[in-house]
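Chain X:
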Amino acid sequence: MTRQRKTSEFLRTCIFEALMLLLDQKKYEDITISELAEKAGVSRMTYYRTYENKEDVVIQFLRTRTDSLLRQFDEGNYNNRYEWYRDIFEEILEQKDVTYKILKTPQLCAVALEHFNNFAKVLLPRVYKIEGNSTVMHNRIIYQTGGFVFLMSHWVLDGCKQSPDEMARLLDSYIHNEKK
């Protein structure tokens, strides 16, 4: 990894963590770019070289996480979907405080839902080995993304009482039964 890339990743991490800290103190809509940049220890100019708005901070965070999961899936690191689902729930559990804040912030929740829908458009055709862009596939993506997002959301909002293993088994059973 190049030095510039490490610096860029560090910068994005600082800005994201600053946003999460500020969300502990005030409503999302009351957070200004100036105070976000100050909390992150960067100038407004640096902030705007990296992001256009506050939502981009969360989109980049989500993209980093989902890209990693997709890369692992593509590399064939899983024997079955259940193992992949378990890793997804483990990742969510590791980031449960962040996920909770995103879910409780309407603007960020909407951004996250859009991101997961776009992620599913890339992922599900690979999972089901379906080519093309049919209406059936499009509707299946919407249906499964919605189901996953609501299942994950309720799990996080309820305090992650079940283990990632239990959640992965539950998700796998829902999807398996759906095919019958």
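Chain Y:
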Amino acid sequence: MVIIGRKLIRNAACLCLFILLVITIQIKSYPLAGLWILGSVLLWIFFDKSIKAFVMTNLCFGIGFIFYLYAATYWTVHVDTKELSVFLNRFSLVMVLIPMALLSRFSGSPFLKYWKKPVWNEMISFPFIWSGFHQTKVKTFLIIALTVNVLIFTPFVIGKGWPFIKEIWLLTIIFSLTNAIFEELIWRGALLSSFSEQLGEKWAVVLTSLGFGLQHYSLGFPWAVCIAFSIGGLFYGGITIKSKSIVPSIIWHITLNILMFLSGLIIK
């Protein structure tokens, strides 16, 4: 019981530290940055090797996230075409991956553990991934999820009209592919791989889902919408764990990005 309690406190502290980092970088708060440094030092001193690895993952992610925000802002300043501007803005997410790839290279830890062929027939539960009132295969779950998304967004897409769609179709493809692939490589790829080794799969899904949602604040979304994105992230993370692959979450993410773009929720 003592061991379970200590582990719970440890993982909860890691959750708070990571969320603090994501928020701090976006709002550029020096006091919160100081609090994050203090928390990291305490975790490093009082916990084991896996938590030291967690702190290093946090640090590398934070460095990459800062460079990403800088690149996303200044790479597109003198770009003439909107298509190239959108591509460079989303491609700048690679800045987040570089420090984590270097950390993986020198520490020997897995970088993209879920970059493999999906196990489509693995069972997944609804609504809590590991438990719920209904179980189905990953491939069936994904088909149902995509169908629900299409049904929800179709009225909004139709409402925007054909001229709007014809004007933004190329932007839709560029944004949806680059954004979804790079965000999944970061959140369900590099971070989920690291956190699942350090904290366990369920905690890793919670951390990456909350971080994934909250980082949308830098894209101009209010915090309430960011929390809604975090809920979606739980399902992205869950289907990645269950299928042992980021391929299903990439497919789902691309589809949702296309629907949101054509609905005018991302670009007016």
